[in-house]
Amino acid sequence: MSKDQYDILMIEDNPGDVTLLQEVFVETGISCNFKHFAYGENALTYLDNISDPINLPDMILMDINLRGDDGLAILKILKTNPRYFCIPTIIISSSLAKTDIQKSYQNYANAYINKPLDLDVYIQRIRSLKEFWLTVANLPGEKQFIGK
To answer: For residue 53, what pLDDT is reported?
Structure first.
């Protein structure tokens, strides 16, 4: 489902990764409004303060290695809340630990993408993520969520 602009929430504590994600999304010509939080708790507060579900983000990109609450705990909160569980939530992490990957999917992550050390490979993965989720996949669109 392609639309004029996508709202993307990033939960990432590495400023370099935030900048890279934004730049790769912007270079593809798809208009995105990014909201960024380094702490998962702050992102949850932000989401909880959105009164109209139509204003919730189209997608959440998050690391699981965060300052403050563990990213897996934040993911579990997001995916067990009927208000947020339909928002595609993609984990982008440097961890290749099988337990991190398994726990992410057990907590209903929609995808798990590894941040490789090779910058060109990382950029290609971000492009593929953007291509699939913002041009191929049909997102919830009207954001008809259960709950608030």
So the answer is: 87
Average model confidence (pLDDT) across the chain: 88
**Which of helix, strand or coil describes residue 85?**
coil
Per-residue burial over 135-144, b if 16 or more Cβ lie within 10 Å, else e, is: eeeebeeebe
Residues 6+ apart with CB under 8 A from 64: 70, 71, 72, 75, 91, 93, 95, 100, 104
**Whole-angstrom distance, CA of residue 58 vs CA of residue 117:** 28
Walk me through the domains of the chain, giving residue ranges and CATH numbers: 5-136 (3.40.50.2300)
Residue 39, Cβ density class (10 Å: 0-12 exposed, 13-18 middle, ≥19 buried): middle
Q: Cα(129)–Cα(131) distance, rounded to whole angstroms? A: 5
Residues (pLDDT < 50) of the chain are 1, 142-148
31: three-class secondary structure by DSSP: strand
